[in-house]
Amino acid sequence: MVRLACNVRGSVSLPGDKSISHRYAMLAALADGPSRLENYSTGADCASTLGCLRSLGVKWERKDGADNVIEVQGSALSLVAPNEPLDCGNSGSTIRMLSGIVAAQRFSIEMSGDESLSRRPMERVIAPLTAMGAQITSQNGRPPLRITGTTLKAIDYKMPVASAQVKTCLLFAGLLAEGETRIEEPLRTRDHGELALRAFGAQLDRKGNEVRIRGGQRLRGIEARVPGDLSSAAFFLCAAALFPGSQLTLTSLLMNPTRARLLDILMQMGLRISVRQLEEIHGELVGTLQVTGGKLKGATIAGADTAALIDEIPVLAAIAPYTEQGIEVRDAKELRVKESDRIASIATNLRAMGAELEEREDGLRIPGGQSLRGAEVESFGDHRIAMAFSIAALRAQGETLIRGSECAAISYPAFFPTLESLVER
Ligand code: S3P
Quick check: pTM over 0.90? Predict the structure, then answer.
């Protein structure tokens, strides 16, 4: 249950970034020697990755009595055939990125997940991995996947969909393949795969939207502290944007330019953001943000911005009715194949709270200047929808009940208590 608030104030250090945690765990599993990962994501998705790695014979343990410090013993590229199907849970990142690694192993494996994952499109990794030599069967392009690995051959691949998960899958497969793999993406997507590979000692070349990796390179273990998750911080940033008097500090936050478009958009909309203590850790920019609320203007999100903001659109849309001009989202068909059909989820919940909007096949137009009322809304089993509507609820009259809100634990188990510690009533 979330109630009307009057301000947001305080300081938070976010759990480790989900995208980086998955990649570090997978590369640590392949490396020579141990890796120590601090501030590893506490979300269930990154635990799914660790569970799959354990089934593949990788040894890892939690350290320092903490749930976010992990020590992984690198397998020096030798994974073992698991006895049972790999359970990827709700995690598209786990199944897509790990498929690039298991496709290069000399065994067969089944990868499956929960009901939501079983609806998500996998053809985007099946086609290129098959072209590299793997044999893959699926349920009409959806999980479960049955992968029979082999010695992969490098590929020259133009990706039809802008997807960092697919790019990373192919970079991992390319690392384990014979020859040089070349991947071209239609738009520049998040580059954590490239930065993580470099951090673990691999060489790759990037030119514009093209990246090349030579197969047969060895990785070495690293010690790393995962930067705070900017996509989780998005909920608090949007909460701060709702109140002109808000003051928020976010420490050790990921500031990678391929992820930070949200900060530009929120600044254009009226939030004041200053960055302190900017540093680079294993190629990733990390900084402390000081945020002050202001008047909230509207925005249009389209083209490359939509791809760059794909995980933040649910919360931007959830606050759209409170902006002056509203928010229009275009070119966002990918939102329909996330953990839920996010366009439909957003539209249903906003309407339940009394908002007017237009739902389109590839986006939404949500007028500004609206007042919402508390209501019963659905999470649709989608962590980002549950968290987005808890933010919309902060300015709605009355109380909002988010059904199934516990799914926030997919990326951020401590989200609700942390939100409560920041809001004033
Ligand atoms: C991710 C890429 C995005 C994003 C997902 C994480 C990643 O998915 O939505 O939450 O870590 O590479 P797509 O690759 O499907 O766009």
Answer: yes
Amino acid of residue 391: I
- How far from chain centre, in Å, is Cα 162? 14
Among this protein's residues, is 311 annotated catalytic? yes
Give the max Cα distance, the chain. Answer: 61
User: What pLDDT shows up at residue 325?
Assistant: 98
CA atoms within 13 A on the CB side of 189: 21
3-class DSSP assignment, residue 417: helix
Q: Is the CB of 165 under 6 A from ligand 1?
A: yes
- Identify which of 173, 223, 178, 192 has the alpha carbon closest to the alpha carbon of residue 72: 223
pLDDT at 198: 98
Which parts of 90-230 are beta strand (E)?
A: 108-112, 135-139, 142-148, 156-158, 180-184, 204-207, 210-214, 223-225
**Ligand 1 centre distance from Cα of residue 93 (Å):** 7
Based on the domain organization, do 331 and 410 belong to the same domain?
Answer: yes
CATH number of the domain that 245 lies in?
3.65.10.10
Q: Report, in this order, helix, strand and coil percent for the chain, each rounded to 5.
A: 35, 30, 35
* Among candidate residues 198, 225, 252, the one where a domain is terminated: 225
- Plot region of 272 (φ>0 → left; ψ -120 to 50 → alpha; else → beta): beta
CA–CA gap between residue 66 and residue 51 (Å, rounded) = 17
pLDDT in tens, 132-152: 999 999 999 999 999 999 999
Confidence of residue 19 (pLDDT cuts 50, 70, 90): very high
- Could you list the residue range(s) of the whole structural domain that residue 49 is in? 18-225
Q: What is the pLDDT of residues 202-211, one digit of tens each?
A: 999 999 999 9
Among 117, 163, 211, 340, residue to substitute to test ligand 1 (most atoms within 8 Å of Cβ): 163
